[in-house]
Amino acid sequence: MKRMLLTTAATAVLVSTAALAQDAVPADPTIEPPTAPAPRFSSIQEMTVGDVLGMIAYDPDGNKIGEIDYVITPASGPMAVIGIGGFIGLGEYTVALPLDEFKLSPDARYFTLQTDKATLKSQPEFDESTALGLPRDRMIAEIMSGQPTEEMVDVKPTAAPGTASELPVSD
Predict the structure, then answer these.
(1) Using one digit for the tens of pLDDT, what is the confidence trace for 137-155?
(2) Is the pTM of this model over 0.90?
(3) Fewer CB in 10 Å around end: N or C, the chain?
(4) 140, exposed or middle or buried, with CB in 10 Å at 0-12, 13-18, 19+?
């Protein structure tokens, strides 16, 4: 019993000494604290479809609206399809919004929309069954320019990177 008490006391002294030693080390004033890396993008136009996919959109009050599932180019212009609510894609309500409505955050980690989840859910749901997404390497600026090129070939929206279903669809 005496040996156990001495072992416990010695362990407590060692642990507390190490903790005190950490607090006693003065900070080196010549070393600058790490800074956050600069954002890779300053606007959505600098991004690719792959960069946009999976990003979260928030309303002006900072409430999460949903995640961008894919980018499409219907006749009405380039749009991002957002999945609202649901769990792992189940029970999700989808809407398509013009890409020019998405404002990139200053740190380039999310988008802000000038609407909210309730307003979007009052819109008719977007029918994803016939929609085709764009290749992940397609530049958003190119898509938003309104001048499609031969490379703007639709792919299946559920394609995983590197799978055969991600390859361009030929006519």
Answers:
(1) 999 999 988 765 444 344 3
(2) no
(3) C
(4) buried
